[in-house]
Write a structure and sequence with these properties.
By secondary structure, the protein is α/β, with parallel strands linked by helices. It has 2 domains: about 180 residues, Rossmann fold; about 180 residues, Rossmann fold (3-Layer(aba) Sandwich). The strands form 3 sheets. A 7-stranded mixed beta sheet has the order 7-6-8-9-10-13-14, sandwiched between helices. A hairpin with a 2-residue loop joins strand 13 and strand 14. Helix 2 runs parallel beside helix 3 and helix 4 runs parallel beside helix 12. It is globular, with a radius of gyration of 21 Å. The chain starts with 7 loop residues before the first strand and ends with a helix.
């Protein structure tokens, strides 16, 4: 309930809570609304945040018009939202035109830097690079690449091909499905034929869920395709979608900047508050945490400056440390990208990942991979091969 403050600030919340990736959008929106309600109930914030929620329903063509309405007609200087890179690309020209700021929380493919975007989701050196450091030495360098047919899949698979090549490996095939398509049998048949060491999946929504189930059926027929031998690895799968996959997901891997299985020294009450808000057995995810962090950061910036203009907010957002459920968070003023701690999780059961590896601390974002050292990854792969040969 918004109290009678002297002033309120409209905040656009642009998430698809229906459509192909509704589970992700719902979590992100709930996290943003959770933070907004906490801010509005806290007397330490001498203003209110007024949510203006738009649901494009997962239809790419609607994002631009909805964002135009939020920024031009309803006066939002800040929009927290979009999940896919396709929708983000639709929105960026609008926030640039109206001098607004997009707070983007999803993992993405990198190779972008916009003055009108605060990037709070992982970029390649914070998801696929640590994932490959874990997977290639353990499972091998023959990968099958499968993705949804848009920029996230294309660019993540391009990076994967380069990483594999630097390690003497290869992509045995690269296939794409239209967004929402569940036409996976031909792809699974090819995987059964080529027998890769692992699968990198950049599928989203129903395509991803159908693919997991089909690989699970293949593994039931041939143990060579079980998760411990040929894992599916993801950089975008979180707890909120595990219920849509079922037991077929168990044992497969994902990278994220937050898992519910992690200890929470940074905000000890967050998980309890999230559980109370979500109710039942619904787990929190990195998307819920991201939406929460974006709104809390924005509120702290407005409190510090007394103003919600980009000219006031952006220097604060990129100029100080924020204490968040993700840990201490700093945004690089050169790129508007956050330093984040990568974690790797193995699906352990309904709604739950077991964390199998974590970085020692926040990793500075390198969206263009200019500081990436491929020789370290290649050396790890060579060392693993040598140990296997020595062991017979």
């Amino acid at each position: 309930m918004v109290r009678g403050f002297r002033h309120d600030y409209p905040i656009g919340l642009l998430y698809s809570t229906t459509g192909d990736y509704a589970a992700i959008g719902r979590d992100a929106l709930d996290g943003a609304l959770m933070a907004l309600d906490e801010v509005n109930a806290d007397p330490a914030f001498p203003f209110a945040l007024r949510p203006l929620v738009e649901n494009p329903g997962g239809v790419a063509e609607r994002y631009r018009a909805r964002c135009e309405d939020l920024t031009r007609r309803q006066g939002c200087r800040h929009v927290v939202g979009t999940i896919t890179s396709l929708s983000r690309k639709e929105v960026i020209p609008v926030v640039e035109k109206h001098d607004a700021l997009l707070w983007y929380i999803a993992p993405y493919e990198g190779f972008e830097c916009c003055d009108n975007v605060i990037y709070l989701g992982a970029c390649p050196n914070q998801h696929i690079v640590p994932m490959f450091h874990h997977v290639l030495p353990r499972h091998g360098t023959r990968a099958y690449l499968v993705g949804s047919n848009y920029i996230w899949g294309w660019e993540t698979n391009r990076i994967a091909r380069e990483l594999l090549g630097q390690c003497g490996g290869e992509a045995v095939a690269e296939r794409y499905l239209a967004l929402g398509s569940e036409d996976v049998p031909r792809i699974v048949a090819e995987i059964a034929e080529k027998r890769p060491d692992f699968i990198l999946s950049t599928l989203i929504g129903p395509s991803s869920y159908a693919f997991f189930r089909a690989i699970g059926a293949l593994a039931a027929e041939d143990p060579a395709f079980k998760a411990e031998r040929m894992p599916i690895v993801n950089c975008n799968l979180t707890e909120c979608e595990l219920g849509l996959i079922g037991e077929a997901g168990i044992g497969h891997l994902s990278a994220a900047v937050w898992f519910a299985d992690l200890p929470e020294p940074h905000d000890p009450g967050f998980s309890a508050r999230a559980r109370a808000r979500l109710g039942g057995d619904r787990p929190a995810s990195a998307h819920l945490v991201g939406g929460y962090v974006a709104v809390r950061m924005l509120a702290e910036c407005i409190r510090e400056t007394g103003d919600d203009t980009i000219a006031a907010v952006r220097p604060v957002a990129t100029g100080r440390r924020f204490d968040t459920p993700l840990g201490p968070l700093v945004v690089d003023p050169r790129t508007n990208h956050a330093a984040l701690t990568p974690h790797l999780g193995r699906i352990a059961g309904p709604g739950r990942f077991e964390v199998v590896e974590s970085a020692r601390g926040p990793v500075a974002a390198d969206p263009y991979l200019v500081d990436f050292a491929p020789e370290r990854l290649a050396a790890a792969v060579r060392g693993a091969r040598a140990r296997r040969m020595e062991g017979g």
